[in-house]
């Protein structure tokens, strides 16, 4: 339970931040295009790209990340209880992390 709880918290926080990142990355160009086209209603991307964007940039990275990512082995996590402070102190998901990912997406 200790091993999977810590790893699950870390992976879920990373996945949530990544979802914000990819959605901002999709919406910011549309927003700027709307201003430059005076909100004419024309689409910047075609329908197939919208569909492929969510499949490729949502499912594939998350499946890859949850399958292959391990920060520490089970033995290390069981011998060092101080590694579990990340959940109590919200190190991987807080306001600073959110705005950092938002900045990365807009940059």
Short description:
This protein has 107 residues and is an all-alpha fold. The protein has helices at 2-36, 47-68, 74-79, 85-88, 95-106. It has one domain.
Give an overview in words.
The protein is an all-alpha fold and 107 residues long. The protein has one domain. Helix content is 74%, strand content 0%. The protein contains five helices and no strands. Helix 1 packs antiparallel against helix 2 and helix 1 crosses helix 5.
Task: Summarize the helices and strands and which ones pair or pack.
Layout (H helix, E strand, L loop, with lengths): L1 H35 L10 H22 L5 H6 L5 H4 L6 H12 L1
The proportion of residues in beta strands is under 5%
How many separate structural domains? Answer: 1
Specify the biggest β-sheet: none
Assembly form of the protein:
single chain
Please give the radius of gyration in angstroms: 18 Å
Unreliable residue stretches: none
- Please count the helical segments: 5
Q: Number of DSSP strands?
A: 0
**Terminal-residue CA separation:** 39 Å
Written as H for each helix and E for each strand, in order along the chain, the element string is HHHHH
**Shape summary:** elongated
Instruction: Give the structural class.
Output: mainly alpha
User: What share of the residues lie within helices?
Assistant: over 70%
Q: Name the average pLDDT.
A: 85
């Amino acid at each position: 339970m200790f091993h999977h709880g810590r790893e699950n918290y870390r992976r879920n926080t990373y996945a949530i931040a990544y979802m914000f990142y990819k959605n901002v990355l999709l919406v910011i160009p549309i927003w700027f295009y709307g201003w430059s086209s005076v909100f004419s209603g024309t689409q910047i991307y075609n329908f197939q790209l919208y569909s492929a964007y969510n499949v490729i940039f949502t499912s594939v990275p998350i499946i890859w990340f949850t399958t292959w990512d391990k920060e520490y082995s089970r033995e290390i996590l069981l011998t060092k209880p101080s590694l579990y402070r990340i959940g109590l102190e919200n190190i991987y998901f807080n306001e600073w992390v959110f705005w950092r990912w938002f900045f990365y997406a807009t940059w």
